[in-house]
Design brief:
Elements: E1 3-8, H1 15-27, E2 30-36, H2 47-57, E3 64-69, H3 73-79, E4 84-89, H4 95-108, E5 113-118, H5 128-136, H6 147-159
Parallel strand pairs: 1-2, 1-4, 2-3, 4-5
The structure holds adenosine-5'-diphosphate.
Length: about 160
């Protein structure tokens, strides 16, 4: 049984993330999508909100589980009996950061592999910050985020 862990902030999940989740679900027996509580980031959505949005937008994919973690990712991965970390790759801008992280993780634990999945060309420049900016100024979010995420974004900014 091959279990992969896909960690991220998912603040909020975009169609780029969902595309990576779908692709990973075809490769691995189980994919655990896990929302990281990163103390350095100030998320727009609470962990619970991010988990609920991910649950809703991946409910049709049977071998996906949604979870959250804090602390060291490697410890979390081991606690799930997994040896695979999935990360998405967009344009070159992701590469250096992801490369450093993957290699550092390997220095600490050589038995855990990081696998990169490229998203559909259409989502190559999509990220959560752009989506939030679009939503804040009432821009069109069509095909950028799942419908439930769009609704949550509209609600969030209507209160601000
Ligand atoms: P983090 O804060 O850990 O970078 P994100 O939620 O921004 O978390 O992203 C989680 C993972 O998904 C990262 O590997 C990131 O590169 C990837 N990702 C984000 N957006 C896209 C996208 N549009 N296409 C492919 N991968 C993406």
């Amino acid at each position: 049984m091959k279990t992969a862990v896909y960690p991220g902030s998912f603040d909020p999940a975009t169609n780029g993330h969902i595309d990576v989740i779908k692709r990973a679900s075809k490769i691995f027996d189980k994919v655990i999508v896990t929302v990281g509580d990163n103390p350095d980031k100030k998320p727009l959505f609470s962990t619970k909100e991010r988990l609920d949005m991910l649950e809703e937008s991946t409910k049709k994919i049977k071998n996906v589980e949604i979870d959250s973690f804090s602390g060291l990712l490697l410890n979390y991965v081991k606690s799930k009996n997994s040896k695979i970390i999935v990360r998405g790759l967009r344009a070159v801008s992701d590469f250096e950061f992801e490369f450093q992280r993957a290699l550092m993780n390997r220095v600490v634990d050589d038995s855990v592999e990081t696998i990169f999945i490229m998203t559909k060309e259409h989502y190559v420049y999509l990220n959560s910050s752009i989506v939030k900016e679009m939503a804040r100024f009432n821009g069109n979010l069509n095909d950028l985020v799942p419908k439930n995420v769009e609704k949550a974004l509209r609600e969030k900014y209507s209160k601000k």
